[in-house]
Design a protein that fits this description.
single chain; Molybdenum Cofactor Biosythetic Enzyme, Chain A; Molybdopterin biosynthesis moea protein, domain 2; Molybdopterin biosynthesis moeA protein, domain 3
């Protein structure tokens, strides 16, 4: 049995990349960008009117003119017009090109229009007021988005602006989630008194969807020949296989034995933590591929599965696909808490923001089988194994999940 830090280290050493692919713009949301994006022209690409109003020459205003004959309208999306009479004006709409011969935009709120003339009610203007100059934000060739950024709505707007109808993103690993156990039935079924509905795979699928990964699922019976045949197919077809259950010491917990027989190298089995101690991790490289097939075999208790996915799989994914370590937050313990075993403890907590300080309030539960309790908590507070008493005000790492 190894400690949490050693388990994390061994998993991080198996970080892998799965290449890149081109996807349509709107299919790239939530994916990891794998090409640097540069400005294809200046931002903005022209001197841009920022408010609806009139465009005038400041020289004319400074000479004392306050009434300007309207020569026409500079609409957004229309070709640039030119002021013919320097003592006149052009109505100019937000987003339009600034007309030639003008260098001030006065908003409609500060003028009155009568008889095709604009009467200005202010006594002072600034040169280039309400004008967004060409190249003020970025110039052609500037870096707009660096590689390895998760694409959100903000990035989508920039990608569209530079004409990226297709985007190069990191390929997601192909992942299969496997549940085992004769006691499990589908969510559509009515379980008998000795059965429960299959839930862990859906929790794992949801956690993976949060990362933009569309995974597949499979349920296998507690039958060794079936497990051998089906798991061998999975190892040949998927980059990562996540198991939920059958890794402890029960008579039907065959997964470690089956994986060993299929040539999967065990990197560790059992971690000094609660919940999730029976966690098994290993790799297989059957065809001398560049990447190994990785196996995360989580214990079957729902909270154990949930904790291990957040703590270990999420960090592995972050480093593999984004190329950097997950930045851990910290929170202050909101009340005294005791935990006697010499194990790292992942305490379910509710978070409060008190004057900018994140406070974690312990949430009592009924152990690693208490799936419903997860809906009441916001995060996991990681308490170290070398202490038994944890005092209000002490700060520890947190793993948020909402």
């Amino acid at each position: 049995m190894i400690d949490v830090s050693e388990a994390s280290k061994l998993i991080q050493e198996e970080c892998q990349q799965y290449g890149t692919e081109k996807v349509l713009l709107m299919e790239s949301v939530g994916r990891v960008l794998k090409e640097a994006i540069f400005a294809d022209r200046d931002f903005p690409p022209f001197d841009r009117v920022c408010m609806d109003g009139i465009a005038i020459s400041k020289k004319s205003f400074d000479a004392g003119r306050r009434t300007f004959k309207i020569e026409g309208v500079q609409a957004a999306g229309s070709a640039q017009k030119e002021l013919v009479d320097n003592d006149a004006c052009l109505e100019a709409m937000t987003g339009a090109v600034l007309p030639k011969g003008t260098d001030v935009v006065i908003p409609y709120e500060q003028i009155e229009i009568k008889n095709n003339c604009a009467h200005v009610s202010v006594d002072a203007v600034k040169e280039l007021q309400n004008i967004h100059l060409q190249g003020k934000d970025k110039v052609k060739g500037d870096l707009l988005i660096a590689k390895n950024r998760i694409i959100t709505a903000a990035e989508i707007g920039v990608l569209a602006t530079v004409g990226m109808h297709e985007v190069e993103v990191a390929k997601q690993p192909k992942i299969l989630i496997v549940s085992t156990g004769d006691e499990l039935v589908e969510v559509t079924e009515n379980p008998l008194t000795h059965q429960i509905r299959r839930s862990n795979v859906y929790s794992l699928q949801a956690l993976l969807l949060k990362l933009g990964i569309a995974s597949k699922t499979k349920h296998l019976p507690d039958d060794k020949p079936s497990l051998l045949a089906e798991i061998e197919k999975a190892l040949d077809s998927f980059d990562v296989v996540l198991f939920s259950g059958a890794v402890s010491k029960g008579k039907f917990d065959y997964i470690p034995e089956v994986l060993d027989r299929l040539g999967v190298e065990k990197l560790f089995h059992k971690v000094k933590q609660r919940p999730g101690k029976p966690f098994w991790f290993g790799k297989r490289n059957a065809n001398n591929n560049e990447n190994n097939t990785l196996v995360f075999a989580f214990p079957g208790n729902p909270v154990s599965t949930y904790v291990n996915c957040l703590k270990y799989f999420y960090r592995w994914y972050q480093k593999s696909i984004l190329g950097k370590e997950l930045i851990l937050e910290e929170a202050m313990l909101g009340q005294n808490f005791s935990f006697k075993p010499s194990l790292t403890y992942f305490l379910q907590v509710q978070l409060k923001n008190e004057s900018g300080v994140i406070t974690a309030m312990p949430l009592s539960g009924n152990g690693s089988g208490d799936l419903a309790n997860l809906t009441e908590a916001d995060a996991l507070l990681e308490l170290p194994a070398d202490k038994t008493e944890f005092l209000k005000g002490e700060v520890f790492p947190i793993i948020r999940y909402r």
